[in-house]
What we know:
- This protein has a single domain (22-47, 54-153), classed as Immunoglobulin-like (Sandwich).
- It has one helix at residues 2-15, and strands at residues 25-29, 31-32, 38-42, 57-62, 73-79, 88-97, 105-106, 108-112, 115-120, 132-141, 144-153.
- Strands 2-3-4-5-9-8 form a 6-stranded antiparallel β-sheet, with no helix packed on it.
- β6 (88-97) and β7 form a beta hairpin.
- It is built from 1 helix and 11 strands.
- It is mainly β.
Amino acid sequence: MFRGLICLLFCWGISGCSSDSDLERTSLQFTCLETQESCSVSLSNAKNSDQSTKPEEFVLRLMQSELPALKPLDFYFFSSHSSIDKDFVVEKAWIGGRDMFMGEHDFTITMQDEVAQLQGMIPVCVTGDSMIWRLHIQALVGGSAYTFFADFHSRSDSHN
C-alpha cells in the first residue's frame, strides 16, 4: 500500500496541474525615448498576436529620468488603449544588470484599475557610475504570458 501511494504521488507530480508557469512566455523589448522617461512596445511584435485587430500597445513610464542607487523608483506600466478588453495581470517585476550580474531586485506591484505601479530601487554599482539596468516585467494579457523588458542607464550623463 505504501509503495502504491508513493507511485501515485510520483505520477501526479510528473503530470502536475496546469498553471501559468506552463504557458509559453513571449519576450518583448520596449523602445524607450532617449530621456528614459517613456517606453512603449506593441503586442503586434509578438509571434502569437492577432494581426486582424488593432495591436495592443503597452507603455512604461519612469517618474524620473535618472536611476539613482538606493533611492525609490516608480514605474507605471499600462496599455495605451483607454480600456484593456483583455485580462491584464502583472505577476512579477524585477531589475538587474544587463551586462553584469548584479542580482535580481524585486519590485512591489500595485494594480489600480488597469495601471501597474512598480516600486523598487537599484543597488550601488561598485565598478563605476555607468551601469545599464534591465527591468523585467512578467504579465498575463488575455491569457497569454509575456516578459517585457527595458534597458535604462544609471549615469547622469546618459543622454550624451
